[in-house]
Amino acid sequence: MFKKDISPGSKSKVKSSIQRALRTQLCTTYPLLTPYIDEVVPKKEQLDAMKIPERVTLYLINGEPVFFQHMTDPLLPHLKLVHRFPQAFPRIRIDRGAIRFVLSGATLMAPGITSDGGRLPGDDGEEWGAAGEHLEKGAPVVVAAEGKEEACAVGLLTVGTKEVEEVGKGPVVEEAHFLGDGLWRLNTE
């Protein structure tokens, strides 16, 4: 979505009632984020909305990007927020071979996730969201890379994770934002 450089648009202050609604929406969409919501969107801080190309609204606190929304799609976290709170978002892991494709903005395909280095949220274990829970089609997800600490992309699932396990091929994540893209480089000041 943001493969090219983008220019900042007009900023406007978000009403406190809308800010409360966004906080609630974030907690609903990302239950793991609930313990950190006062750090992510503090009640006493001013939330700003910046319009950027492709009908996207970028939300900022003190000039720092927090999350963004394309039209009526779910709120997606900015990667800078994901790097601050990596445990607060459901994620998948890609193998080393898929990294270069993800960082060029390609749609993430199933073989990059179902191979030995990949991992789905429904897999038993560790820090991968709630163990044993599968994500549905259209769910927002963070993409981590094998052997790397920081997440490399954020996007929406094009198929459910259970279907990815069963079929093992085809597109899985439509990327919205990745490291080094126009949104990452956007000057919000």
From TrEMBL:
Q: Give the matching InterPro entries.
A: MCT-1/Tma20, Pre-PUA, PUA, PUA-like_sf, Uncharacterised_CHP00451
Q: Does the keyword Cell inner membrane apply?
A: no
- Record flagged with keyword Metal-binding: no
What domain of life?
Answer: Eukaryota
Q: Name one GO biological process term.
A: formation of translation preinitiation complex
Which UniProt keywords are present, listed alphabetically? Cytoplasm
Q: Where in the cell is it found?
A: Cytoplasm
Offer a single GO CC term for the protein.
cytoplasm
Q: Which Pfam families match?
A: Pre-PUA, PUA
The protein's matches in Gene3D superfamilies, at most eight in alphabetical order, are given as:
3.10.400.20
NCBIfam families assigned: unchar_dom_2 (TIGR00451)
Name of the protein in question: Translation machinery-associated protein 20
Species for this entry = Pseudogymnoascus verrucosus
- Gene this chain is encoded by: TMA20
